[in-house]
Amino acid sequence: DGGITQSPKYLFRKEGQNVTLSCEQNLNHDAMYWYRQDPGQGLRLIYYSQIVNDFQKGDIAEGYSVSREKKESFPLTVTSAQKNPTAFYLCASSSDRVGANVLTFGAGSRLTVL
Amino acid sequence: GEDVEQSLFLSVREGDSSVINCTYTDSSSTYLYWYKQEPGAGLQLLTYIFSNMDMKQDQRLTVLLNKKDKHLSLRIADTQTGDSAIYFCAENDSWGKFQFGAGTQVVVTP
User: Fold this and answer.
1) Among A42, A100, A106, whose Cβ lies nearest the Cβ of B102?
2) Is residue A30 within 8 angstroms of chain B, CB to CB?
3) CB atoms within 10 A of CB A10
4) CB contact, 8 Å: A52 with chain B?
5) Phi, psi of B83, rounded to the nearest 5 degrees
6) Shortest CB distance from A42 goes to which of B42, B50, B103?
7) Helix (H, G, I), strand (E, B), or coil: what is residue B4?
8) Residue-by-residue pLDDT tens, chain B, 110 positions
9) Pick from A82, A4, A81: which is nearest to A44 by CA?
10) Residue B81, φ and ψ in degrees, nearest 5
11) What are residue B82's phi and psi, to 5 degrees?
12) Which of A23, A78, B54, B90 has an alpha carbon 20 to 30 Å from A15's alpha carbon atom?
């Protein structure tokens, strides 16, 4: 079955460490997205990519970095510069074709900074 | 503040209907969406509606769209305990960017 796989599901990080969250999709979607979710808040866009080797900052890109070397993969690195990284991170993809542009989400990764 | 606004909490008895409301800001949004999130999981698309429609029905779900007031609602008929979740309203704005509401926590009581 096609879908989006995020790993790890849970991650603990010490302050000052960089961590990378994996996101892989086999839906043949062109666009991929990273969102951050905090309790009681909507989803906030961190980065998005509409094509391989290209990506754009979202609303809260500071302290994060991404790469898009392959169509299937869009890893997110949470750097030590991110002041409050504890959150639930969601990866999504969309086909960006004519018609309803539906986002398909992964199961999420919960990052906790100790 | 949020461009898409929703009430944060709704309590409903099992078997009753639930109505979740949402207001959005971009009148040029082409599609509007409802997503469901269960605890510790990603978001699952429930349904979406094209902006030139007033209503869409899909089994127990009914979506109503009032473009004049920029108001969207989701009605769940015969609410079950498995419907307990957070429900997100979203729009695809004129820039092609998705804007999500803060989510409505629905709690179904026996």
Assistant:
1) A42
2) no
3) 11
4) no
5) -85, -5
6) B103
7) coil
8) 448 999 899 999 999 999 999 999 887 778 899 999 999 899 999 999 998 889 999 999 999 999 999 999 999 999 999 999 999 999 987 777 889 999 999 999 99
9) A82
10) -60, -30
11) -70, -10
12) A23
Among residues A6, A5, A12, A16, the alpha carbon closest in space to that of A63 is found at A16
Calculated CA dihedral for residues A101, A106, A110, B2, nearest 10 degrees:
10
Q: What CA–CA distance (Å, rounded) separates B36 from A69? A: 31
Q: Check if the beta carbon of residue A71 is closer than 8 Å to that of residue A30.
A: yes
Token pair recorded at residue A14 = 């010490």
CB-based contacts of A79, cutoff 8 Å, min separation 6 = A18, A63, A64, A65
CA distances (Å), origin B30, targets A44, A68, A86, B26 = 20, 28, 34, 9
Number of C-beta neighbours around residue B89 at 10 A = 27
